[in-house]
Amino acid sequence: MTATQQHPQRAPSGTIRIALVDDHAILRQGLRSILDREPDLEVVGEASTEVEAVALVDRMRPDIVLLDLKLSAGSDYEGLALCGQLSASHPGIGLLVLTTFLDEQIVVRAVHAGARGYVVKDVDTTELVRAIRAVSRGESAFDSRSAAAVVRSLNGQGVSAEQLTGRELEVLQLLAGGLSNAKIGEQLYISATTVKFHVSNIMRKLGVSRRAEAVYAASKQGLI
């Protein structure tokens, strides 16, 4: 499946240009039909993978990227790495997560990766459009459930920021074996970019700046 072939065009003043990133074509088509009914919203392209999404955003420069966290069968959270990548390369872009996952730690990780909003796919159309418009204004946009998760985290009631996820522990084990990001990706059936994102999170959580230090710190804590 490839990103839709469109070229940048000057949008009417006030129009919010949106890129859809989801591995399900039917869902993208449904979203497009809903959003294109709104006079101030325009879907300028679609992508189903990390690579397609990066190329699409580089080419079309949308105002909003509406992205799912699961972009392949190999990883449930590939979209987190993509979120971090797009946030770093396009600092002004509005990243809005639209996904099926509602997990406190994932919501907080998405925010740390640069997401300005997080809504679950069973949100109604009115709320989704409201979230898109809010993010386009530079505001945050969370549905009631994801907002509660963020508040709990900020109050210290959520999952500890130092706790490694199951996937991060898997990456850490392979990291301890001296494998490169590419080799770790092959072992776990995820992209090297996603591995890099996990390694960065591991080092941040362990309070270190080098891969070797991460392995040493993890071994001292009995994580490997």
Task: Write structural notes for this entry.
The structure is a single chain. This protein has 224 residues and is of the alpha/beta class. It has 10 helices and 6 strands; from the N terminus they run βαβαβαβαβαβααααα. The chain has helices spanning 25-35, 50-60, 78-89, 104-112, 125-136, 144-154, 166-176, 181-188, 192-206, 211-220, and strands at 16-21, 41-47, 64-67, 94-99, 117-120, 141-142. The protein has a 6-stranded parallel sheet with strand order 2-1-3-4-5-6, sandwiched between helices. Helix 2 (50-60) packs parallel to helix 3 (78-89), helix 4 (104-112) crosses helix 6 (144-154) and helix 9 packs across helix 10. The longest helix has 15 residues, at 192-206. The chain is elongated and about 55 Å long.
Strands, helices and their partners?
Elements (H helix, E strand, L loop, with lengths): L15 E6 L3 H11 L5 E7 L2 H11 L3 E4 L10 H12 L4 E6 L4 H9 L4 E4 L4 H12 L4 E2 L1 H11 L11 H11 L4 H8 L3 H15 L4 H10 L4
Structure summary:
By secondary structure, the protein is of the alpha/beta class. It has helices spanning 25-35, 50-60, 78-89, 104-112, 125-136, 144-154, 166-176, 181-188, 192-206, 211-220, and strands at 16-21, 41-47, 64-67, 94-99, 117-120, 141-142. It has a six-stranded parallel sheet with strand order 2-1-3-4-5-6, sandwiched between helices.
Radius of gyration: 18 Å
The helix count comes to: 10
Low-confidence stretches: 5-11, 157-161
Q: How do the strands line up in the largest sheet?
A: 2-1-3-4-5-6
User: What structural class do you assign from the helix and strand content?
Assistant: alpha/beta
Distance between the termini: 39 Å
The string of secondary-structure elements, in order, is EHEHEHEHEHEHHHHH
Shape: elongated
Major sheet: 6 strands, parallel
Share of helix among residues? Answer: 40-55%
Strand content: 5-15%
